[in-house]
Amino acid sequence: MTSPRSGTALDADAVSRFIDRALAEDLGRGDITSNAVIPENAVVKLVMTTRQDIVVAGIGIAALVFLRLASKARVTVEAPDGTGAKAATVLARLEGPARGLLSAERTALNIVQHLSGIATLTRAYAERIAGSPAVLMDTRKTVPGLRKLAKYATAIGGARNHRLALDDGVLIKDNHIAVAGSLGEAVKRAKAKGLQSIEVECDSLGQVEEALAAGAGRLLLDNMDLATLRRAVELTGGRAELEASGGVTLESVRAIAETGVDFISAGRITSSAPAADIGLDSTAE
Known about the structure:
Blueprint: H1 12-27, H2 32-37, E1 43-50, E2 54-55, H3 59-69, E3 74-77, E4 84-85, E5 90-97, H4 98-128, E6 135-137, H5 147-157, E7 171-172, H6 174-180, H7 183-192, E8 199-202, H8 205-214, E9 218-222, H9 226-236, E10 241-245, H10 253-257, E11 263-265, H11 268-271, E12 278-282
Parallel strand pairs: 6-11, 7-8, 8-9, 9-10, 10-11
Antiparallel strand pairs: 1-5, 1-12, 2-4, 3-5
Helix pairs in contact: 1-4, 3-4, 4-5, 6-7, 7-8, 8-9
């Protein structure tokens, strides 16, 4: 399963294990309501519909959830991941064993609602900076255990993935600097370990100059106002890549992009994205 925008891939085995955990959490010892109310051989037709404009993400995983509990069901995806779907668009049609499909309903919806919410908010951010040189990036501000899925969704929405995990790249932050003794010393130690592409968090122009002198390859400009960002761009003069971060909103992202920074990382696209309003209803069709 791969994002159409950045090549971000989801490992099939990892997705299968995630589904195992999600269903175990929701089923407990079994769906006592469906088992009591619905005849064992009952068949149901269902339609999954978005109730708001969204960017679809996670529909393929949701389909796998349904098939896990109703292997003989027919699941037809009408709007694949990456689709910009208007309200009332049918995302998928399902037909098969009623008990299994209804037992899987909440887990499947939770997944597609959460991931579509992330993709939708990410697309809104990406559209705000369209035409500028700046690249939107996500962060590690994700629900524990769901990072790969969240970053899959941001890629669908139009962001580039930042570090997936702490072994993905060097990012020296304020607490690293405090313990190391200085920014320059922290960079020196990272280089001594043979680490490449060192990024350093800077919260002042003084730290920008210090990071450049130490040979950092990318500077994370933390919570700087627009005037300071522009000055940092001037000071850097192309010697390092610049990433603006901290408090980035839909209202501020365009102005930040226009300061000349190379990247803008926004934690809100994963930590604050509202779940998309998507429903699953029985149909006589």
